[in-house]
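=== RUN LOG ===
request id: a7f3
mode: sequence -> structure
chains: 1
length: 162
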Amino acid sequence: MVKYLIITYYIEVKLLDLSILLMSIGIILIILSFFFKNSSKKIEKDVEELSISIFQETNNLKRRLKIVEEELLLEPEFQVKSTSAPSQKGQNPKVQQVMQAVQQAAQASKIAQTTTQVKPIHQIIVSQVLELNKQGLSVADISIRSNLTEEQVRQVIANGGR
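=== RESULT ===
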């Protein structure tokens, strides 16, 4: 019986020591947590700065897109020409069909413009034609770039922009 009491006492003392040890470790960890910086605040700040920079970049891109759209409204038949002519044989048939449709639409638009009544030429286009002429471009090239007929380009050049 004495042996049993000694063993029970020994177990109770060890459990009590263990619980005191665990409680003291917990208290120490809680105190230490107050001294460490909260990394989530830094992450929140970084995310906020990133979202602001993305917002600014988006606004800049929208402004640039509006400028390009306005320029394209002045030149509705704007085409990007590559320096090397790709071979038609190597292209996808669907791409060729789309290109033919675009070319037909451009030709139809040009025919429609010539049949409609003559609109006055905007001053920006006139100055562009005169500048291209000064650079030595041919009348056909100026016509393509300014979206005017060759006859209109000749008239603008002959009148000197008046």
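=== NOTES ===
The chain has a mean pLDDT of 77.
DSSP finds six helices and no strands in the chain.
=== END ===
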